[in-house]
Amino acid sequence: MDTLILSRIQFAANISFHILFPTITIALGWVLLFFKLRYNRTGERKWMDLYMFWVKVFALSFAMGVVSGITMSFQFGTNWPGFMETVGNVAGPLLAYEVLTAFFLEAVFLGIMLFGASRVPGWVHTLATVLVAFGTTMSAFWILVLNSWMHTPAGFELRDGVVHATDWMAIIFNPSLPYRLVHMLLASGLTVAFLIAGISAYRWLRGDHAPAVASGLRFGVILGATLIPLQILAGDMHGLNTLEHQPQKVAAMEGNWETGPNVPLVLFALPDEAARENRFEIGIPSGASIILKHDPDGVVPGLNDFVAADGTVLHPPVAPVFWGFRVMVGTGMLMLAAGAAGLWFLHRRGATALPRPYLMALVGMTFSGWIATLAGWYVTEIGRQPWLVQGVLTTADAVGPVAAGMVLTTLLAYLAVYAALLVAYVGVIFHLARKGSFFAPPVTPALQPAE
Amino acid sequence: MFAPDVLPLIFAFLMGLSILLYVILDGFDLGVGLLFPFSEPEERDRMVASIGPFWDANETWLVLAIGILLVAFPAAHGAILTALYLPVAVMLIGLILRGVAFEFRAKAPLVHKGRWDAAFFTGSLMAALSQGFMLGLYIMGLRWGWAEVAFALLTAGALTVAYSFIGAAWVIFKTDGALQRKAVTWAQGGIWGVVIGMGAVSAATPLVSARIFDKWFRFPEIVTLAPLPLMAGALVALLWIALKRLPAPGDHFAWFPFAGATALMVLGFSGMAYSFFPYIVPEKLTILEAASSTESLSIILVGTLIVLPVILCYTVLAYTIFRGKATALRYD
Q: Shortest CA distance to A227 belongs to which of A235, A239, A217?
């Protein structure tokens, strides 16, 4: 294995581990604000119980996100020096604005939000909660601006092989940003919805029938059921945007080799890149043409259009994109079913009498948002290969001159740490769920400090 | 809108400021982690409580510093970080371990708390050692030879002890009673790390480069710069006397060791900045040569000049809200 592939695996491992936690904190910040406002308004203890439980998950996820994010800011330099050397004039200011407008805001006010409730007036604490939620969303905005620009670069010119910015509005609001931003924010909302529903269902099944648990269940199911149709719509529009700007990616997602009309929607296949065909294909006739062109005779691009005359392949590896897409959509369909069933049960039986098998299904789907989010990112990021910045810089040209053995050593170290932390994180969340959490009146001495 | 030659200098200053703030601020919370093995388990909750509201924001200064290096000096960024590949990885894993151990130790089952305390110490140690190692290697011109690595190992040890000193000074400032008395004894040991570290760096830097030697020892600089080492020496003496007498009745001067440690770090950093200027990669690449395009730097500077004062304001606000002696951390 060479430095390039090892560096790619290392960056993929880091960013996959990292994205798990912002996916939770982006939406959970706003959910915490909702719990807090409900408590301020109604004075019902269950909302504060919910806040106290989920703020712990938030603090833990936030810490995981921060430390794994620092890793990535360094890896630009240690493993991918060509990236900043070529596109630094665009990527630099975007990253700088993320640090300045988002990182400090969330980091400083997180301290006040977590530990300041007894030291500041109530409205300051609510404001701190707003600023933390706003900060995480701003952070997502800037990083998605940069990521979208790498897929659909705009507002720049090349001088001596180096990118120079010409129009910052065009850079920031580049063609794929609106779709990607909405898609990711909804993904975060869904991840949190199913996390809250799953953990609440777990607590309920263990006999914890506190009002906060029932409210958490109800909140998670309704949030998930509301967001999933929006997400399906947003995903469809994002796909059409990708078809316009990166047709080779859509061709790989659909597993379509030849450009033409009446392209089937492939449900199952084993894409074979050597033979350039699908094996064991099962599909719905003209399905892809209908979805992508809204017309059975619509012409859908095929992968064979992206092979140069000399045989150089200019499309991404097909199988991971093809399968990533199916895992994402499949998880989305499960969420749709779970959301619809949940609404039905809530309507007929209420949150305190949900059927056991349904609750068990929700527990099983606790981290389903993670699976869909990761699968979706693999589709879009692997789907960009061989480019790092579409049409401007290839991944191979950006990699640094570090010895392969050194990258392998650090990769193994990171993987070991990440695996251990992931086990610990999931373990602790279920531990917290078993322990439950109740809003203690301020006079009670803390049983476990620093919590 | 800004003169092309001035912009890189402004960014070099901002990067220096971020690194300095990072070394002081994360220095004290890394230091608190380094002191874990010397403390009793029941004292650790209070030590962690003293840094709880701050550590995350403290670490953000490192992200800003590396961000400026990345953004403003892309050529130097690649050269420095590929040369420091391994110590950077060790530091990152250390920072990951301690950042999450901080949260896990309070939330994991009680029987696992000791393990997370160990992870907190190990992470702090990895981060401190690797930062000291990188400092030494940078001074030696980023060369991986036996002598250079030996010197880097010396600075690694020295910076680690220095961090534990400023960490102990923070504990003196933020606690009272038996823990505060214990922290005074930690600081009495730690101050030697500061002396050895600053002494070694001051002695080695001019020897590595004739240019730096000349900058310090030619006339009139040898006279005009003399206050730097003299002030550092006086501060060390004052700190030594203070640590003999602390804790004082009425908790007077509990702030002094931390203020003194901060002043020492500012002095040391200024001396280093003076030595290396105008180079960003020692003796190879100057600030001006490494800078990125003027348009990009302008657009970042506008944002920085608006946002940085705001950041400083709300950072001060956070320290004001959590002023006074640290109590147990609670979410309500």
A: A235
SS3 content of chain B, % helix, strand, coil (to 5): 80, 0, 15
Tens of pLDDT, residue by residue, chain A (451 residues)? 788 888 899 999 999 999 999 999 999 999 999 999 998 888 888 898 899 889 989 989 988 988 888 888 788 878 888 888 888 888 888 888 888 888 888 888 888 888 877 788 888 888 989 999 999 999 999 999 999 999 999 988 888 888 888 888 999 999 999 999 999 999 999 999 999 999 999 999 888 888 889 999 999 999 999 999 999 999 888 888 888 888 888 888 888 888 888 888 888 888 887 777 788 878 888 778 888 888 888 888 888 888 887 878 888 888 889 899 999 999 999 999 999 999 998 888 888 888 889 999 999 999 999 999 999 999 999 988 888 898 888 888 888 888 888 888 888 998 999 999 999 999 889 988 888 755 554 444 444 444 4
Nearest to B104 among A164, A168, A424 (CB): A424
User: What beta strand segments (E) does B131-276 contain?
Assistant: none
Rg (CA), chain A: 23
CA separation for the pair B297, A92 (Å, rounded): 9
ipTM score of complex: 0.82
Number of neighbouring beta carbons within 10 Å of residue A426: 13
Reported as type and span, the H/E element at residue A210 is: none
Could you tell me if B72 and B300 are in contact, meaning their C-beta atoms sit under 8 angstroms apart?
yes
Domain spans, chain B: 6-321
Query: B303 — contact with chain A (CB < 8 Å)?
Result: yes
Q: Is B18 on the interface with A (CB under 8 A)?
A: no
Residues A249/A242, Cβ–Cβ less than 8 Å: yes
Note whether A60 contacts B104, CB cutoff 8 Å. Answer: yes
How many Å apart are CA A339 and CA A226, to the nearest integer?
Answer: 8
Contact A112 B53 (CB under 8 A): yes
- CA A42 to centroid of chain Cα atoms: 33
Q: Using the structure block, give the residue that is written with the tokens 């807090």.
A: A36
What is the Cα–Cα distance from A178 to A172, expressed in whole angstroms? 10
Closest alpha carbon to A63 in B149, B148, B194, B120: B120
For chain A, helix (H) and strand (E) counts, in that order, are: 15, 6
Contact (CB, 8 A) for A259 and A305: yes
Fill in the DSSP letter of residue A401.
-
Specify whether the CB–CB gap between B137 and B84 falls below 8 A: yes
Distance from CA of B297 to the nearest CA of A (A): 8
Beta bridge partners of A265: A284
CA-CA distance, A15 to A10, in Å (whole number)? 9
Residue B92 touches chain A, beta carbons under 8 Å: yes
In angstroms, the CA A169 to CA A157 distance is 14
Q: Do A108 and B81 touch (CB under 8 A)?
A: no
Q: Taking CB atoms and an 8 Å limit, are A77 and B77 in contact across chains?
A: yes
What is the least distance, in Å, from the CA of A157 to any CA of chain B? 13
Alpha carbon distance B84, B66 (integer Å):
13
CB proximity B331 to A under 8 Å: yes
